[in-house]
Design brief:
Elements: E1 14-17, E2 21-28, E3 33-40, E4 46-49, H1 55-62, E5 69-72, H2 83-90, E6 93-97, E7 110-112, E8 117-120, E9 123-129, E10 138-143, E11 149-154, E12 157-158, E13 161-162, H3 169-184, E14 192-195, E15 201-202, H4 203-206, H5 210-216
Parallel strand pairs: 4-5, 5-6, 6-7, 11-14
Antiparallel strand pairs: 1-2, 2-3, 3-4, 8-9, 9-10, 10-11, 12-13, 14-15
Organism: Streptomyces ambofaciens
InterPro entries: MBL_Glyoxalase_II (IPR051453), Metallo-B-lactamas (IPR001279), RibonucZ/Hydroxyglut_hydro (IPR036866)
Protein name: Zn-dependent hydrolase
């Protein structure tokens, strides 16, 4: 079946099958958070992005093979409600942005900085530090050697705009700068965007609207 990226809490997961990587998207919790399970097709090693809520659903999606790692994109509580239970059940190593780790009440094994590489089997993900939604938010970029890039943006980029900066002009200026320079300027229009809530998008769909985002200030 064709991947749409449209999932709902209580509904089935959606699977994006790439040549080297399988991406399973599931929605969990009262804030309709997205969690993404990445599986290296060569080694079957798995990594979870955001153990947001509903450990039962996440562990069922993970299955008996477990996960090697779990990455928390940022410190906001709706993105780590199931983290402790998932780590206890799987023994996964935890990753989070260096400047957000102290706000996550589960110990972080690996502090992530801008440009760091996180591996899942033979697949490499590049972390991008995006400041503004939180001090230590990270996005993960998979530059697929067989196709276009894929980027997991947490709450820093959605269809229609960047993440919430709560009318803080300085925070918005920081976030829009980082998203432009590290995501839009670095990646092509074909890049698939997987946000922390809601439907997926592409950089090409969002790029024409950057001037509008600047003008409105959010």
């Amino acid at each position: 079946m064709t991947y749409s990226g449209e999932v709902r809490v209580g509904g089935p997961a959606d699977v994006h099958e790439l040549k080297d990587l399988m991406i399973t998207k599931v929605a969990v919790g009262p804030m309709n958070n997205n969690a993404y399970l990445l599986r290296c097709r060569a080694t079957d090693e798995q990594l979870l992005i955001d153990a947001a809520n509903d450990a039962h659903t996440l562990l069922g999606t993970i299955g008996d093979d477990g996960i090697a790692s779990v990455v928390t994109t940022h410190r906001h509580a709706d993105h780590w409600q199931a983290l402790a239970e998932v780590v206890a059940a799987t023994g996964a190593r935890t990753h989070a942005g260096r400047h957000d780790a102290d706000g996550i009440p589960v110990p972080t094994d690996v502090l992530v900085d801008d440009g760091d590489t996180i591996r899942v089997g033979q697949v490499e993900l590049t972390a991008r530090h995006l400041v503004g939604h939180t001090p230590g938010s990270i996005a993960l970029v998979y530059d697929d050697p067989h196709g276009h890039p894929h980027v997991f943006t947490g709450d820093c980029l959605f269809p229609g705009g960047v993440g919430n900066t709560h009318k803080d002009a300085k925070a918005f200026a920081s976030l829009i700068h980082d998203v432009e320079t590290k995501i839009f300027d670095a990646l092509p229009d074909e890049t698939w965007v997987y946000p922390g809530h809601g439907n997926d998008t592409s950089l090409g769909a969002e790029r024409p609207h950057l001037p509008e985002w600047h003008a409105r200030g959010w």
